[in-house]
Design brief:
Layout lengths: L22 H19 L18 H17 L7 E3 L8 E3 H23 L7 H13 L26 H7 L9 H4 L12
Antiparallel strand pairs: 1-2
Helix pairs in contact: 1-2, 1-3, 3-4, 4-5
Length: 198
Amino acid sequence: MTLIRRVTPGDLSRPTPCSAWALADLLAHMTAQHHGFAAAARGAGREPAHWSVRPLGADPVGQYTAAAEHVIAAFAAVEGPDRPFALPEFSATRAFPAARAIGFHLIDYVVHSWDVARTLDLAYTPSAELLRAALPIARAVPDDDSRLAPGSAFRPGLTADEEADTLEPILTALGRSPHWRGPEQRSGVSTGRTHLSS
């Protein structure tokens, strides 16, 4: 949430590493996913309304922050790692154990947090423990034709530098170039921000 709190209204039209999405689209997606996974944790994941992506209102940062706090509280209330989560975006017929479902959400937010950081030209330094947990999940995401579909959160995998730290293999496994820069960053225009760790 530290990164999201740095977003200003003028940032919402910025392009992101998710090529089809401006920052407003990415935040709307992330907010909807928080609501959907919170509903799944409560046993209501099959209801499509919980997963609906809605346009951001007058306070997108507040909307996102409230949704993030909501899903954190919902996950904290899950009674055990085998509690079934209905995730209709993954399967219309089967449920997933809580531990696996929360892992899906974890990897989405490790990568989307990097997307936001790159969009805003801010540093992104997750803890080593978080990256160690995220790497095998990233490598387990199927790298198939579904990644070519319009609106797919992940693109076909890329090759990581053999000397890279743990974040780069996570990004490249999910189709992100660690060297991505927005148009202003490529042209050397300052965003006026200082870097931060999150």
